[in-house]
Amino acid sequence: MYLVERLAPIQFPLVNRFYKEAGHKGKARGDDVVFVLKAHGIIRAAVRLCPVEGRLFLRGLWVMPEFQRQGLGSVLMQQVIEQYLQGRYCWCYPFAHLEVFYSQFGFKVVAPESVPECIAGPYTAYTRAGKAILIMIRDDSDPESVPD
């Protein structure tokens, strides 16, 4: 049985310790919205929703390596959508091989030339560094629109 919960900022050291132990470089910051998935009271997966220049970015969706490919990321994402993302735009830069995963939660690939500079700029830097990533957006209000 899994429990998905939103952490209060005072609990962010717990998720930061999880990220470090799980081999992820991300860290929760004060204005992030953080959700974790726990099994038997222990964090097994986490995700951060970060405000960046008035936009919401999904960052750091991570599952403890020994629990990957068991559906925990899907359980966490579904709960985050139900508890927080309904009616909100949300951007992400997933690795290209995760397109199908994010698509099942309503994220759509967006061309870099069609997004604001604050989104295209970091994407360009990541791809120049050799990262095979995409720009994706989730929008409950109008799936065909891309806000600027």
From TrEMBL:
<dbReference type="Pfam" id="PF13508">
    <property type="entry name" value="Acetyltransf_7"/>
</dbReference>
<dbReference type="InterPro" id="IPR000182">
    <property type="entry name" value="GNAT_dom"/>
</dbReference>
<dbReference type="InterPro" id="IPR016181">
    <property type="entry name" value="Acyl_CoA_acyltransferase"/>
</dbReference>
<protein>
    <submittedName>
        <fullName>GCN5-related N-acetyltransferase</fullName>
    </submittedName>
</protein>
<keyword id="KW-0808">Transferase</keyword>
<feature type="domain" description="N-acetyltransferase">
    <location>
        <begin position="1"/>
        <end position="130"/>
    </location>
</feature>
<dbReference type="GO" id="GO:0016747">
    <property type="term" value="F:acyltransferase activity, transferring groups other than amino-acyl groups"/>
</dbReference>
